[in-house]
Design goal:
The chain is an alpha+beta fold. 53% of the residues lie in helices and 18% in strands. It is elongated and about 75 Å long.
């Protein structure tokens, strides 16, 4: 398969990642294009909050702009966090056993409950579910919320910790418990991405 050439904008991001701050002239020379062409791409990247310009004054002549990546742009570069986390959890399980893994995810559940409980206050069940959908949207789960004849459905179209949950099902068990506690409702998992379903979903009803 023929390897595709990275877009000019991607090449600019890669150069700034490798070399730090660069001017439009420096970037143009490195890419073999004019400074004017570079500036068009820089304007778009600035608009997307992927780069920021700093004014550098010189003893003589006009000030120049030096461009550098923003923290948001760092997320565009590959990270090895899931593999590192899985390796560390595997080591912990080998050293201290399965119970220690469960304790670890229980602590995570407690932190989540403490962090999100204030956002549930003063809301009825439907409003709590909508707020929970917003929370999981902030965490990258692409949630969907549906009301269905006296019950509700929460769907995650993306699992932000899918690789970890495949290896450590405690993650999903404690997520379900956390939802039940925060929503003060009966929560039943109806599909499970870690077991091959295309998404995760929960059916939620008022406590009997």
């Amino acid at each position: 398969m023929e390897r595709q050439t990275p877009s000019t904008r991607r090449q600019i991001l890669d150069l700034l990642k490798k070399r730090g701050g660069m001017t439009a002239k420096d970037l143009g020379e490195s890419l073999g294009i004019t400074s004017m062409a570079v500036r068009r791409h820089l304007s778009a990247l600035e608009r997307d909050d992927l780069i920021a310009a700093t004014t550098v004054r010189r003893p003589m002549g006009r000030p120049t702009y030096v461009y550098a990546l923003t923290p948001l742009a760092d997320d565009l570069f590959p990270k090895n966090y899931p593999q590192l986390t899985i390796a560390l959890l595997d080591d912990l399980r080998m050293m201290d056993g399965e119970e220690k893994i469960d304790q670890l995810f229980k602590r995570r559940e407690e932190r989540q409950v403490a962090a999100y409980a204030p956002r549930m206050e003063g809301k009825d069940l439907g409003e709590r579910i909508q707020e929970m959908a917003r929370i999981f949207d902030e965490n990258g789960n692409l949630p969907e919320f549906k009301a269905d004849d006296g019950s509700y459905r929460l769907i995650w179209h993306n699992c932000a910790i899918h690789k970890i949950s495949e290896r450590f099902p405690q993650t999903c068990a404690h997520e379900q418990t956390m939802l039940a506690r925060l929503l003060d409702a009966d929560v039943v998992r109806t599909s499970h991405q870690a077991k091959g379903d295309p998404y995760c979903s929960y059916t939620i009803r008022k406590k009997q």
